[in-house]
Structure formats: structure tokens, C-alpha cells
Amino acid sequence: MEAMSSSLLHSFFFLSLLFSLANAVPRIHYHDFIVQSTPVKRLCNTHSSITVNGQFPGPTLEVNNGDTLVVKVVNRARYNVTIHWHGIRQIRTGWADGPEFVTQCPIRPGGSYKYRFTVQGQEGTLWWHAHSSWLRATVYGALIIHPKEGNSYPFPKPKRQTPLLLGEWWDANPIDVIREATRTGGAPNVSDAYTINGQPGDLYNCSSKETVIVPVDSGETNLLRVINSALNQQLFFSIANHKMTVVGADASYVKPFTTNTLMLGPGQTTDVLITGDQIPARYYIAARAYASAQNAPFDNTTTTAILEYKSAPCPAKGASIRPVLPSLPAFNDTATATAFSTSFRSPGKVEVPKEIDESLFFTVGLGLNRCPSGAMSSTCQAPNGTRFTASMNNVSFVLPSSFSLLEAHHQGIPGVFTTDFPAAPPVKFDYTGNVSSSLWQPTRGTKVYRLEYGSKVQVVLQGTSIVTAENHPIHLHGYDFYVIAEGFGNFNPETDTSKFNLDDPPLRNTVSLPLKGWAVIRFVADNPGVWIMHCHLDVHISWGLAMAFLVDNGVGELESLEHAPEDLPLC
Ligand SMILES: *[C@@H]1O[C@H](CO)[C@@H](O)[C@H](O)[C@H]1NC(C)=O
Ligand SMILES: *[C@@H]1O[C@H](CO)[C@@H](O)[C@H](O)[C@H]1NC(C)=O
Ligand SMILES: *[C@@H]1O[C@H](CO)[C@@H](O)[C@H](O)[C@H]1NC(C)=O
Ligand SMILES: *[C@@H]1O[C@H](CO)[C@@H](O)[C@H](O)[C@H]1NC(C)=O
Ligand SMILES: *[C@@H]1O[C@H](CO)[C@@H](O)[C@H](O)[C@H]1NC(C)=O
Ligand SMILES: *[C@@H]1O[C@H](CO)[C@@H](O)[C@H](O)[C@H]1NC(C)=O
Ligand SMILES: *[C@@H]1O[C@H](CO)[C@@H](O)[C@H](O)[C@H]1NC(C)=O
Ligand SMILES: *[C@@H]1O[C@H](CO)[C@@H](O)[C@H](O)[C@H]1NC(C)=O
Ligand SMILES: [Cu+2]
């Protein structure tokens, strides 16, 4: 009897071992994304929005670390489109990264392209979005990466997990909005609403019935995966009466810390744990702008969802009781934004590159182009009859049109780009002061900065106050980087190095460059390809706030870019 149960026990363990080993084998997930025009009603009006599979927001993809995704994108819309898998490292698979004219030509109406890539060593929350004109206003969704089967989170397993995508809605066609701005040279119209999982929430007209409900039960701890997928706005985020414990950001774990308010720039994600420790009731989850620029128009509305305890009394019919609203910081509360962004640490000591091969200094900011004499005033609607522009190191980035940068690099096609992106700005000045108007007009160019495979790179990002100073969410494709320091004013290489955290800095793919300030990032250039680095405010990338790194192949196949897929769209 005893022997038998022990052998049963043995075979049980053996079977469960086999089972978990079988599950640990990475999986391949196949998806079809049909990009199409879909009627979407918000704020009392219906628009023909571009969606994926008719869903807004688009489908949530869930994978385990180590899995492969194969997504066939079919373009049935009337616009060119590409899809970017925001934050995915795309090691050796730059062809699947997605930014139009950088790693591929657009998928034209009627065309299709299969994105194939493997998730390697990333866990947490990322997202996907269109990377073509302003289509990402409605073409976006969550991309959730769980630990490998059999591995656990570095925190108790949450009872429920809810992605919360913060978005931005125009009561117009967003493509018309950016086209109008491109024509006039002025600033594009601001949005009419923010959204949580596609819904503005009941502080807006015609929106109360659809307000998103986030369930919670007394005593349980849940994981909220907050993603800023807004086009042009940094957002504060808060939940009435509930503290949040931040455990991850941009698909890397962080040393847990507790806060009442998050601030996310577009492109950033934050994973938080919340515990149902309040009186069972309904509490607002709310987000609104962190608008750092002075005198610039912005959408000052507030989006809400409702955190609802399952045991809460049903809202009385007719006399519905308003949930409690959280207090959100003032729109210009840079102190709260800074306190939040400087709270991030890696969970423990990390390998930060120490000896730097490439020490770069990039200025980041807006500019104004003079209009040629005789230009129509209707096309020069920026201040004083100029046109808005933006640049890094005084180069306003121009996308190529005949070949993508990656194809031109891989096939050695000359004349598409030059490799003279400057390592430092051409003119040094007081970046945060009153800048002479003689410096306001950048040059235009398709310039990349070339990096040897494996080089250890440091970039000091310095905001300028040309036209207006503001916070910029700077996003690098193909890499995660350590944010080793940030501060206000002009970066001082003599004294500010003492602020460098080379011990446990956070790993991110998007850094929130402080208002009138700087941030320092480090990474090892171990992923060959062409990788755009840009401001994730789409209005700024539209004006040229971008550059690209060209990372050479290393030695052998495992350090080289793969061959281009056969169905890569051509121009
Ligand atoms: C932008 O806003 C102006 C003023 O409200 C409006 O007349 C115009 O139609 C808007 N443009 C677009 C493209 O919606
Ligand atoms: C909501 O509708 C009312 C009545 O039509 C209108 O006065 C108000 O301006 C609208 N509010 C918003 C935010 O659109
Ligand atoms: C938003 O801006 C409008 C117009 O500029 C103003 O009337 C309104 O009071 C502002 N709302 C908030 C909450 O600041
Ligand atoms: C923020 O705005 C308020 C008024 O809206 C103003 O009184 C205050 O000085 C501003 N604070 C900063 C830091 O700009
Ligand atoms: C616009 O021009 C006026 C007069 O030429 C000048 O005083 C002002 O500083 C200019 N403003 C901007 C934003 O260029
Ligand atoms: C900025 O400098 C210009 C000329 O250099 C001057 O006319 C202007 O008043 C200054 N503005 C501020 C806000 O100091
Ligand atoms: C950018 O380059 C243009 C053209 O050479 C020059 O006029 C301008 O002063 C430069 N601005 C800065 C900030 O370097
Ligand atoms: C669509 O992409 C093609 C290149 O593949 C380009 O020639 C065309 O101008 C693009 N159309 C628009 C509207 O951008
Ligand atoms: Cu991006």
C-alpha cells in the first residue's frame, strides 16, 4: 500500500515535471490584423475610424517571455499603414520593427505584411501601435508578456490583471487634423477627450453608459497595466482612495514603491498593484494632462473609469451616486511629475556600461522656420508668420521616400541617408534661457549616427527652450536603456556626473525628458539595424523631432541582422 502510493506520488511528480517542461517550450502565436475603417461613436458623434479587426482599442496580445509572434497585417483601409511593437527589442529582426520609411516602406491599401519576432528577456507590459502619420490615434492595443511558464512574478500572483490603455480622441478624423497642421504650419487642434480603454467616461457628454468598469473584490490584490497610448499628451493617473505599488515599467521590473499618482508620457507603461482595502463602493480611476509647456493649448478634460467592488451595493436606480473622484495634480505640477519619475530603480544591482565608447550630447526641442517671402499667410500660421519645426542637434529629421533606411543600409543603396548626424550640437548656448531667434531655424536632413556593434553608448538628452520649453518623452527603438540621471537646467559634465546612478538605475524604452532639463541614458549597441529615436508626442515627430542610429553587424550570424522577409513592402 505504502509502496504503491509512493510510486503514484513519484509518477505524479514525474508527470507534472514533464507537463511543465512541455509548457516551457516557447510557443508561436499567429494573429491576423485587418486594418479597416469602422464606425466608432464617441462624444455623441460617429466617425469612420481606422481600427484593427473592427475593435477599438485593438486586440490585446498575450504571450510568455520567449514566445514568437507572427502577425499578418492586411491593409483594407484607405491609408498607408505600418505597425510598431513598441518596446520589443526585435533582436536581429529589425524588419519587423515597423516605423514607416525607417525599417520598411508602408503597407499600401490592399497590401499585407507578416511581422515575425521573438520576445527575448522582457516581461511586463508593452503595446503595439500604427507608426504611420497619425493613425495610431485609433490603431493601438496592449501587448502583455507573462513570465516563462513555470516562472513567477517577483511579487505575489495578482488575482486579476487589467490593461488600462489611456488614449486621446478627436471629434474629427485625426489624419485630417495633422494634414491641416502640415498645410498651415501651425499647431494641430488639440483632442476633444482622453479615453481609458477607448471610452472617455461619464464626465463627458454621451459617454456615461459605456464608462469602463474595473472589478475588484475586497481583500484581493490586482495588477493594473497602465499604458499611455495618447498621441500628444503626458498624463497624470490616479485612483480615488487607493494607493498604487509600482512594480514594473516598459516591460522591466522595478524596485516596488508606493504612490498616489502616476505620470506617463506617451509610449510609457507602468504596472501597479492595488489592493481592495477600502469600503466596498465605486471609486473613480482618472487621468488628465500634465501640460508642461507654458502658453501652449492643450486638452484640459478628464477621462474616468470606475473601480467597482463586487460587493458594492448596486447604484440606486435614478439617483445614481457619483463615485469619489481622486485629486489629480495641477496641469503644470512638474514637482509631482519629477518626484514620480525619479522614484524608479531596478530591483537590484544591474550591469550598467561603465567605460563609454560613444559619448553623445543631443539637444531636443522645437523651432520655427521662416517662410519664403511671398508665401501665403495661410501656410505660415506659427508665431510671427513662421512654420513649426523640431529637431535633435539642430537637424530636423526627414524620412526618405524611395527606400526605407534599413533596406538602403542592408543593400548598400547610396543617396538615401548620410552618416553625419552630429555627436554634439553645432552651437552651444543657454538651452533653458531666452534663446536668440538666430538659432531658431534648424537644418533638414536624413542623417543617422553610426555605431559599431557592441559599442557602449551614453546619450545626454538636453531639452531646449526654443519657442517653448516642455517635457519630451524620448523613445528609442530596438533597445532598452538605463536612465542613469536626470535634472533641471543645462547639463554640467563637471558636476552632474556625481548624480549618475550606476548601481540600480531603471531600464526603460521611453524617458521623460524633464521640462527645461536633461536626462542621461546608457545602452550597449548589441542589436544590429537602423533604429529611430524620437519624441513620442506625435505632433513633434511630425515636425522632425527624431534621428536614427545605424548599428553595424558584429561577427557571425548571431550578431547580424537577419535577411529581409520576402513579403517586405517596397516603396
Ligand atoms: C480645427 O479646429 C478649428 C476650430 O475649432 C475647426 O474649424 C477645424 O475644422 C478643425 N480642424 C479639423 C481638421 O478638425
Ligand atoms: C455637453 O452638452 C451640453 C448640452 O448640449 C453642452 O452645452 C456642453 O458644451 C457639452 N459639453 C461638452 C464637454 O461637450
Ligand atoms: C479648460 O479650458 C477651458 C477653455 O480654455 C476653460 O473654460 C475651462 O475652465 C478649463 N477647464 C479646466 C478644468 O481647467
Ligand atoms: C501653475 O499654474 C498656476 C495657475 O494655473 C500658476 O499660478 C502657477 O504659478 C503655475 N505653476 C508653475 C510651476 O508654473
Ligand atoms: C515677433 O516679431 C516681433 C516684432 O518683429 C518680435 O518683437 C517678437 O519677439 C517676435 N516673436 C516671435 C515669437 O518670434
Ligand atoms: C529675449 O531676448 C530678446 C532679445 O534678445 C528680448 O527682446 C526679449 O525681451 C527677451 N525675452 C525675455 C522673456 O526675456
Ligand atoms: C541651426 O542651423 C542653422 C543653419 O545653419 C542656423 O541658422 C541655426 O542658428 C542653428 N541653430 C542651432 C540651435 O544650432
Ligand atoms: C504610401 O506609400 C508609398 C510608398 O510605399 C508612397 O509613395 C506614397 O506617397 C504613400 N502615400 C501617402 C499618402 O503617404
Ligand atoms: Cu514607439
From TrEMBL:
Top-rank taxon, per record: Eukaryota
Pfam families assigned to the protein according to its UniProt record, in alphabetical order: Cu-oxidase (PF00394), Cu-oxidase_2 (PF07731), Cu-oxidase_3 (PF07732)
Assigned EC number: 1.10.3.2
Reaction catalysed by this enzyme: 4 hydroquinone + O2 = 4 benzosemiquinone + 2 H2O
Top-level EC class: oxidoreductase
Main location: secreted
Domain annotation Plastocyanin-like: ranges: 35-149, 161-311, 420-553
Localization per Swiss-Prot or TrEMBL: Secreted, Extracellular space, Apoplast
Keywords, ordered alphabetically: Apoplast, Copper, Glycoprotein, Lignin degradation, Metal-binding, Oxidoreductase, Repeat, Secreted, Signal
Gene3D superfamilies: Cupredoxins - blue copper proteins
Signal peptide: 1-24
GO molecular function terms noted in the UniProt entry: copper ion binding; hydroquinone:oxygen oxidoreductase activity
UniProt cofactor(s): Cu cation
GO biological process, any: lignin catabolic process
Note on cofactor: Binds 4 Cu cations per monomer.
GO cellular component, one term: apoplast
Function: Lignin degradation and detoxification of lignin-derived products.
Similarity-based family: Belongs to the multicopper oxidase family.
PANTHER family: LACCASE-5 (PTHR11709:SF431), MULTI-COPPER OXIDASE (PTHR11709)
The name this protein goes by in its record: Laccase
Organism: Daucus carota subsp. sativus (Carrot)
